[in-house]
Amino acid sequence: MESFTEDHSKALLAKEWLVKVDLQTATPYLFKFTCSSVDLTACILVTDTKTAWAEVLTSNQFSRRWRMCNKLSISPHPDPDEEESWRDRHLTLLGRAHSLGGFQELTLEVPKPALGDLALELECSNWKWRWEPTFLGPKLSAEIISKHLIMPLISVNHLAFSSSDVLGDLAPGDLEKATDKVGRTARRTVDTHIRNALSRPRVATALRRMTAMFNFLPELPAIITDAGTPDLRVPMARIPSPKIKVRDSEHKPNIYSPWAEQSLIQDYDMEPPQEPTPPKIPQQEDSATESESEGAAPKQRTVLASPTPSHQLRASGQPPSASLSKDASPALPGRSRSRTEAPVSECDSSLVRPNKKLKHPEGSDDDDSEEERKRRAATIKSGAAAKRGTRQPLKRGGKRF
Q1: According to a count of CB atoms within 10 Å of the terminal CB, is the N or C end of the chain lower?
Q2: pLDDT tens-place string over residues 313-323
Q3: Does 195 or 76 have the greater pLDDT score?
Q4: Which residue, among 344, 370, 368, 341, has the nearest Cα to 278 in the 3D structure?
């Protein structure tokens, strides 16, 4: 048995579909048959609209199967010309049987296959025939079904819906012209043809309803003639209105808590320590002697020698060099203290408690006043000017400017 080729498929394009039904399984089978009187070969194509089978018989295979099906002598005629004439007559008979008029006179049985994948027995009044086609595979089956069945059905369906005349009432000549016109347009642009054939609302909805009917759907879709144009704009996103949130400080009263104060004090302790401010001495009279200034100058230098914290410099907004130059110059006792004291922020002033003022004993005031008088008298008598020591630069770490 020869294989089914593209040439056999082209030879079957001009053949009509023949239908037979297996009564036992209620399966419809579609047939296409072709034969050649030149090389006395026969070809059959069978499908159930899902799978395709095919068989190709040579001249010797045809004569052998005919004799087996009709229980004749298998040996051919001794005369080759007579044998060839016999094969030609029986092949022509088989071709007439595979026609629209002759196929209705045949009966179909589907027995168990012996050689191929499918067995089909056709029986007439005085002869029998048996086909045993083989499966063509899924890819080739899809191509053949599409080329021989689906595409022609789409074109004929388009002709039926686009024609103003009823196809059943047209004459054969007019129907041929209409069919040829649709076919010529379809083969030039297949994609456009399929789009126009199946995009019409009437055709698309009719196919939809037929599909639903075949598959036993309870609700059948309606057939419409105008689809309309829906709104295809992207819906705008809804922007939620901002919710006004009441701050906690507005509706929560300020409640004094010793634990909160303690936590603030602990946070303050983490900062670099500051030198305690010395107690303020009440200012003396403007006639203070130079000896007192000499006695107070060393005390003032000890206070100025302490390093100023960096955070106080940043808070005051002055560069480090300016602060160093100010610290290096001596000043009067009362006024120098007021100038050298670093400004304390509001947060620090609220957290650090001021030191208690030292109370001087009452008796010491009289003694100090007598000593001061004596010192003044001694300085007036001596007439010597107050000696001041040379100013020594304070040694700091880093570069000197």
Answers
A1: C
A2: 344 444 444 34
A3: 195
A4: 341
Interval 278-298 mean pLDDT:
45
Beta bridge partners of 107: 123
* pLDDT computed for residue 353 by the predictor: 56
Continuous segment of H or E residues that includes residue 229: none
- Alpha carbon of 310 to those of 316, 326, 349, 382: distances in Å? 10, 15, 17, 47
Q: What is the pLDDT of residues 77-111, one digit of tens each?
A: 888 889 999 999 999 999 999 999 999 999 999 99
- CA gap 287, 162 in Å, rounded: 127
State pTM to two decimals.
Answer: 0.58
DSSP for 213-239 reads: HHTT-SSPPPP-S-------PPPPPPP
The 3-state secondary structure of 261-280 reads: HHHHHHHHHCCCCCCCCCCC
Alpha helix (H) ranges present in 305-332? 310-316, 320-328
**C-alpha closest to that of 133 among 62, 49, 56, 65:** 56
Report residue 392 as tokens. Answer: 């020594």
d(CA 42, CA 90): 11
Give, in degrees to the nearest 5, the angle at Cα 66 between 64 and 72.
Answer: 85
Residue indicated by tokens 């300020």? 254
What the block records as the tokens of 193 is 């043809």
**SS3 state of residue 53:** strand
Cα–Cα distance, 369 to 372 (Å, whole number)? 5
Q: Give the alpha-carbon dihedral of 256, 258, 260, 261, to 10 degrees.
A: 100
* CA distances to 37, 117, 137 from 8, in Å: 15, 19, 16
pLDDT in tens, 347-385: 444 455 555 555 545 555 555 567 777 887 777 776 644
Contact 305, 394 (CB under 8 A): yes
CA dihedral sign, ordered 9, 46, 101, 210? negative
